[in-house]
Design goal:
CATH architecture of the largest domain: 2-Layer Sandwich
Family: Belongs to the melC1 family.
Keywords: Copper
Strand order of the largest sheet: 1-2-3-4
InterPro entries: GriE/MELC1_sf (IPR023199), MelC1 (IPR010928), TAT_signal (IPR006311)
Shape: elongated
Pfam families: MelC1
Helix content: 40-55%
CATH topology of the largest domain: protein ne1242 fold
Distance between the termini: 97 Å
Protein name: Tyrosinase cofactor
Length: about 150
Amino acid sequence: MSGTTSTTDTTSATSSTDLTRRRLLQGAAVALTAATASVALSLSRPTATRSSAAGPQASDTFDEVFQGRRIQGRPLPTGSATGHSATGHHHGGAGYLVRIDDQELHLMRNADGTWISVINHYQTFSTPRALARAAVHGLRGAALVPLAA
């Protein structure tokens, strides 16, 4: 009987260790899930730098070829920040002009300093350059058609 008792004691000691390991793994899984969700949320939030929150600067000018399309962007002169571009179109570009193959891309600045365009109205971008590149990608080779005034 003493042999049976020692086997039972060993079995009960092992099952309590398994229970502790199980709880440890469950706790680690919960912590990992929470950490992953936290990182995902922080990456999905738009980040506005001090310069983008203050407004476009003269150094924010770009002129490049992206995926075979010429994209240009520049801040409009201070007097042009009324929402009308050089072509007379009204938009909420907050004094910034973006062109794709010499056609104006209508864009709007959000209150948090991010940008949206008519090509993808549901996704925000931290800079007009990033917005122009995403618009080229979204057009998939199609021509940018001017909006009717």
